[in-house]
Amino acid sequence: MTSHLSPAAQFAAAAAAEAEAEAVALAESVSAAAIVDSVTADEGLPVPYLAICPAAPPGYVPPEFTDEATAPVVDCVDVTAATASAVDENVARQVSSAAVMFENAAVDSAVGSDDGNSDVVVEERKSKVVDLNDQELFPALGGGSAKAPVAWGAKSAGPRPVANDLKPKRATEVVDLPMMQEAVGQAVLKIMERTGARIDVSHNGVLATSTYVISGPIDSVNRAKREVITKLSPRVTQVVAVPAEARSAVVGVRGRGLQTIQTKTGAVLSVARDGDSFDAGDAFATVDVSISGDSIGVAAAVAMVEAAADKRTTRRVAFETVPREAHALLVGKGGAGLRGLQAAHPGVTLRIPGPLDSGVAVGVAGDRAAVQAACAHIHEVSNALMSGSQVLCVAVAKRQHRFVVGDKGCGLRDIALATGCSVIVPPPRAASDQISVRGSPVDLPLAVQMVLERAASSAIDTFDPAQAAGAYGRPLLYAQRALRYFHDRARFRRIESEHGAVLRVAAPAAIASATDPAQLVIEITAPSPVSVAGARAALASLFAAFPPHHFNGIDVEPHQVSLLAESVSRLQSVRSVYTLLSPTGGVLVIYEGFNPDVDRVADPAERERKTRELLRQTLEEFRSTLAVSEQPVTLVAQVPVVQQAAMSSSQESLLKAASASEGANRVVLRFGSIASAETPAQNSRVTPRKEEALAAESVEVRGPAEAAARVVAELERRVAQAAASLALRSFRADVSVPQSLVARVVGRGGETLKKLRAGRDVTIDVGDNSVRIVGIRADVEAVSTEISALVERLADETSETIVVAAELHRALIGSGGKFVKRLGDKYHVRIQFPKNGNGESNDDDEPLGADQIRIRGSRAGVASAKSELLELAAYEIEHGHTAKFTVPADCLPHVVGRAGSRISEIKDASDTRIDLGDASAGPTVDVTIVGTRSGVAQARAAIEAVVAEQQSQADEVVVVANKHHRYLIGAGGTRVRELVKLAGGDPDAAAGAGSCRVQFPRSGSADTDSVRLKGDRVIVAAVRQRIEELVAERERQVTVSVDIPASQHAFVIGRGGSHLKQLQETHEVEINFPRRGAQSESTAVKISGLPENCEAASAALLALVRDETKLSVTLSQHQRMGGRTSALWRRMRSEFGVQVDAGRVDRAPAKPAFDEDSVGDVVYVDVALDGLSAEWILRGEASKLPAAIEAVNVALAATNEPVVDARLRVDPRSHRHVIGKQGAMIAKIRDATNCDVTVPARGSQSPWVSIAGPRSEVDRAIEMINDAIEERA
After folding, report:
1. pTM (global) more than 0.70
2. K Homology domain location, by residue (predicted)?
3. How far from 1191 is each of 98, 717, 781, 1133, CA to CA, in Å?
């Protein structure tokens, strides 16, 4: 019977069997009726239960069940058989489901039951004769006079505790748990020390289980069993999906359902929020219940959660697993199959997975019976469809499979709906290229045709980078280098955008780890073959531009990479060599072109040799840099594995420890417990340093000696700090808490514990009758003190109900419950109002009357809160004066204010409560004010003032022709604001006294002539009158024309329109000049306004007209001395008030083409300007024009030197010296010589610098350029 058990279980069974003799002896010595009475009284056994007796007559009824109809069934067996049965039952229970095991172990652990009624095996003891007179075995039962034994079937006067003496003093428990990953020996020894029980452990490697045989006194065994299950069972987490509508049944009222399950199982449960996990309208909506704890507790909690869900809802969500190929067959052509299934089972909802949802079964939701019938039908239909269908396999190139699948499976879905066939595409990593099509013989041809059409819907081609290596002996290395470089420079993106193609290029990690050139082939996909061909040609050109000799590289130590980073940008600008540095030590140099020493070589072989030499020099420079650096050292520090992950993620802060020494940025760490994810650098010449195996608790530090030593010291410091912190946080204290107060100490949803932990470094574990706090001593002592005080307060808790008129409850609660919350926090009490109020409520309390308030807390707190509540009620009665009146409904928004701001201000100022009626109920609104007599009067006065103010407002419409609107508004609204201000109003006021808002119609509105005036009635009337006056004046306006020469318009208008603005403001007219740029420039200037104002403005305009004269100068003089920014023209304006403009300028001939191969360092280019001229127009007062003309002629006479254009030969490498830093040098030369100096663009190979200006200044500029180059040489 026990051969199938583990060795520990067999030992327990044998120990129990050997104890049979004593049990038999004890049973024979005691009256059977007494045993039955005592056992039933002490054990409280459920129905049915087992009574131990020698034999029982048929129909026996226990004494406490007088009614045979309600009496439980009693199985009476021989003691020996009962003991053996108990052993068998114990053994069977150990190998049963986890939920049943929980009934034996986990419930006892969580609830703390020490009644000794669990299945135990009695220890072996020597058999002895039982003396019925032994007071130790059979103590006297109170009275002194012996009672006659109770006969079979007779009623007992009460339970007898004789069975207590039959309980074994020692017990043995057998617990099977999943095997722990770590050793449990030390933990078992500690449990044995704490509980005094003996624990034997055996392991079954095949089943991965551990058996714990616990023996000793019953109390010790029970305590040890709880600790074993809690501490030696692996922590597991399981997620249970329950129907959405059953969520409330699982959670319970205020979470009591979850708390009950957690208390009984010791597991931790969390339920997702309603909106986070499901849609209320989804028939398949489920709620995820996450359960964490030991394996036995989790299994028991799962069973309890599922049982709670089953009790709440008759609906059921089932998932029927069918072959993946059957999904599309069930849907059918056009969804006909799915509609047929739904019609056959109208009481359920079906959901069939899509083509890419291969891991999801068919969902069925509905009534339990209907769901079962639908599942059976689906299974039957699925088998019939699978057996009646055929399969065709189509060979399609692997790279074209994604076209068949389509975006998010749309291709497979379209084929399934069109044909009713299922298309199975092998996974991308599978080697097979066969696509399976399953369906009816009639629909298979169309489905295969659609598969082939989708496969051919896009053009595709490949490009092998290794083939671009040509005769190079290592094509894989070339492909890796080129792809890595092109990835870094984003060259592939440019090709994709230019040709509308998609390039599938291996990722950088795959490139580095490739062992075959076939792994690096580039796949090209595009809608048309033309685009594919264009992209392929672009790839070929790209690789051809970077042949193998454009790449070279070396491998260095990882910590040395940072030494080379400083030279990268310099080498790229000076040598056109791009450098790629890898964190693992790989250095790759690439020649990008644009180096004159290489590109000017015509012979390909020589150019290749120079390229190789350039890269070799670059690598030699790198080697020289590394050669002079300090040789690295390797140090090893011991760091616990549990700390290495955190240190690895914070390497930057670790390396800062070496910041005081040189080479701090060249320290590399390698953690023994963390495998390196970097691919080692590969090179054709250098073999990287082979890394030795590193112990799990070791950290290798490699780098300069001083920096590495600093990092090791920092590692050791952090390890010591962590150990000290752990020791510091190991202080613990236990606080006794009565079982009845545990839930109160935890608080609703753990709220009390969260408050206790806030700001403190402690952990709090709640047991059956105690709370354990572990952490820093000061925090632990503080939390212990608070919990002890809380327990004392809860033990002293009382409740009292007071009577307060219901109409005062709202005032006592306060806005948002602020008053009642303040009282609760102040006196540590809970205040409950009737359920129709806004206070707290508890479903376990007796319902409150409409005028009752319950206060619960400590006696002192309840008394204080009661006193303050009654005082507040008395205050409310005293301040309960009420005023009721009405206001016009159209004034209510103004009384309330924006977002209630005005009514809130009135409430706060008067300290009253104001209730407003419904504005839609009629023309008036009821207003109720409650407060003190003065406060009510103040609030009423404020509200009536608002109403009076609103009634003083006017809203009028003035009809004004649209043509006058722009004038009335003015520039930026200035005129309309001035109108309001002149009327005595405030143009910034939006409403109230003195306000007046003028609203003009929007463009495109139906009524374009209506102007709305809204605001203070008096101001509105004044503004309306003024608008009507202005409109009348506008109707009298005339428009006159004044001829002013077009050449004088700019001067008359003035700089920035200054003259024009002054004239318009002074004479109150509108002046319009003709637009410039017309083919025939008009001289007529329009003036609009009152006749007398137009006449005055015309005279003022004509007074601004100036005399003008023309002067002819050579084109050379114009280029040198003319222009609005020239010194000569500015001098004429400042000294003589004469404005100079260019009327006509001859076009200079194009410069002759310059021969780049000219001989000599300086070449002068003749510019033929003879015979070319320009015409200057001078405008000013007649008295000042002669003097200005004379000054111009004098200045022109002093500048008769001809302009020349010279070319200076400068080595392109020295062009940057001519330009200077940020153009400083060339700007200096231009300012000093007044010459135009032009340097060839960057990248150009032309050596010629262009200089244009007078001959003497050109020679000076050449001299300055040569001096600048010699200084930088």
Report:
1. no
2. 234-310, 311-383, 386-456, 729-792, 796-874, 879-948, 952-1032, 1036-1106, 1202-1270
3. 114, 86, 100, 12
Q: Write out the two tokens for 388.
A: 């009646």
Whose CA is closest to 424, among 322, 331, 327?
327
Dihedral through CA 704, CA 709, CA 712, CA 714, nearest 10?
Answer: -110
Spatial distance between the Cα atoms of 536 and 556, rounded to a whole number of angstroms: 36
Cα(479)–Cα(515) distance, integer angstroms:
11
Assess contact for 520 and 537: CB atoms under 8 A.
no
Number of neighbours of residue 1014 by Cβ within 10 angstroms:
17
d(CA 582, CA 570): 18
Q: How confident is the model at residue 539 (pLDDT cuts 50, 70, 90)?
A: very high
Using CA atoms, how far apart are residues 481 and 484, in angstroms rounded to an integer? 5
- Torsional sign, CA 1052, 1056, 1059, 1060: positive
Q: Flag whether pLDDT at 1146 surpasses 60.
A: yes
Q: Find, among 921, 819, 794, the residue nearest to 875 by Cα.
A: 819
Q: What is the pLDDT of residue 546?
A: 92
Cα separation, 161 vs 34, whole angstroms: 8
Contact 1115, 1169 (CB under 8 A): yes
C-alpha distances in angstroms, 46 versus 51, 222, 319, 383?
12, 21, 37, 48
pLDDT of residue 101: 37
Cβ-Cβ contacts under 8 Å for 439 (sequence gap 6 or more): 328, 329, 389, 390, 419, 420, 421, 422, 447
Of the candidates 619, 543, 614, 613, the one whose C-alpha atom is nearest the C-alpha of residue 581 is 619
The reported pLDDT for the residue numbered 463 is: 92
Instruction: Specify the DSSP class assigned to residue 585.
Output: S
The DSSP bridge partners found for residue 209 are 178, 204
User: What residues contact residue 907 under an 8 Å CB cut-off, 6+ apart?
Assistant: 913, 914, 939
The Cα 1137–Cα 1179 span in angstroms is 9
- What does the alpha-carbon distance between residue 162 and residue 158 come to, in Å, rounded to a whole number? 12
- Among 1153, 1170, 1164, residue whose Cα is nearest residue 1116: 1170
Report the alpha-carbon distance of residue 327 to residue 439 in Å, rounded: 11
For residue 916, how many other CB atoms are within 10 A of its CB? 15
pLDDT in tens, 780-824: 889 999 888 888 877 777 888 999 888 888 888 887 788 888 888
% of the chain beyond a pLDDT of 90: 5
Q: Is a pLDDT exceeding 50 seen at residue 59?
A: no
User: Any bridge partners for residue 286, and if so which?
Assistant: 243
pLDDT at 170 over 90: no
pLDDT at 11 over 60: no
Of the candidate ranges 280-284, 755-759, 987-991, 1099-1103, the one whose mean pLDDT is the lowest: 280-284
CB 574 within 8 A of CB 634: no
DSSP state of 330: H
Residue with tokens 């009076």, as numbered in its chain: 948
In residues, how long is the chain? 1273
**Which DSSP string corresponds to 277-300?**
H--TT-TT-EEEEEEEEEHHHHHH
CA distance 164 to 136: 11
Q: How confident is the model at residue 110 (pLDDT cuts 50, 70, 90)?
A: very low
Over residues 907-935, the mean pLDDT reads 86
Query: Quick one: which of 682, 658, 655 has its CA closest to 669?
Result: 655
Mean pLDDT of the chain: 77
Helix (H, G, I), strand (E, B) or coil at 305: helix
Distance CA 244, CA 313 (A): 10
CB–CB of 998/976 below 8 Å? yes
Is the backbone peptide bond immediately before 893 cis, with ω within 30 degrees of 0? Answer: no
Residue 5 has pLDDT above 70, yes or no: no
Are 542 and 483 in contact by the 8 Å Cβ rule? The answer is no
User: Residue 1228 is encoded by which pair of tokens?
Assistant: 């200096």
pLDDT class of 1127 with cuts at 50, 70, 90: confident
